[in-house]
Prior knowledge:
Elements: E1 2-11, E2 26-35, E3 41-48, H1 59-65, H2 69-72, H3 78-89, E4 93-97, H4 102-112, E5 123-127, H5 128-136, H6 145-151, H7 163-180, E6 189-191, E7 203-206, E8 211-214, H8 221-226, H9 228-231, E9 243-250, E10 255-262, E11 266-276, E12 282-290, H10 293-321
Parallel strand pairs: 1-4, 4-5
Antiparallel strand pairs: 1-2, 2-3, 5-6, 7-8, 8-12, 9-10, 10-11, 11-12
Amino acid sequence: MNYIVLDLEWNQAGDRHNKDFGLPFEILEIGAVKLNRKMKVIDTFDEIIKPQIYHSIHYITTKIINMDKTDFENGRPFSEVMEQFLDWCGRDYVFCIWGTLDLTELQRNMIYYGMDELSKGPLMYFDIQKFFSMTYEDGKLRRSLEWAVDYLHIKKDIPFHRAYSDAYYTAKVFKIIDSYKPEIEKYVSYDVFMIPQNKRQEVHANFRTYSKYISREFPDKNTAIEDKEVSSTKCYLCGRNAKKQMKWFSVNGKNYFCLAICKKHGYLKGKVRMKKADDGNVYVIKTLKLIDEEAAQEIRDKQDKLRLQRLEKRHSKKERTD
């Protein structure tokens, strides 16, 4: 298997009236570095794409990548470049990107131009930005690529903010992380541009410190949270069903929380994020994580605060009607 370290540059409409909502971001450049399992560079890819939707280059895009409209006139159409890129990738590979956005926009552009999807459901990839945070910081902070390059004392021998150069630096960061902490690759990420369409396509991923579940679509939030798989609280270390101490509750209609306890491993914090699909349905991203007593009390306090707010709201409404 090879690693395809990918970066994209894209353009957007100059104002909302000229925005194509089927393609809010049009890819202008694809840059990539192909690494083998030993982290050796075996090939590179660098192609400019001629704009087909937004012919005026947004001023922010021009400022970031230091290119203007004339630089893209000799580029080729997206579909042509993308077909070449996929052939270049080969058959056995995993995408590696800095952050979470590039694969979503890559797939959106592919669908817009009538190309086959990269996968039938969520696409597994390596988020090197997340890997950096998990290796050198707290796992939550998200640094810029240039910040990571400076931190690791990587030589800056080409400018940033072009697709190939950012892929080049991302590959260098990844190589250092892998040599220091190769087990980090177990913490894969999933791009959900393609939502699971049935239970077979749903994602069940267990990691050392948490588990993740990505559901199929449901008609509404109530149907989703009442689903047996969505509401379950199974310990990701031993596989046992953890007994709920607090049932699922929501503070804003988007994020739901619960508290459960595994007889062997202790408290589990459950979090469900409700996501809206393009067709109006919803799908769920659920995480379960082992926590200590202090964190468990924070969940209890969150629910108590919610109950108090609802009680005060009812009293206030009653006073207005009396």
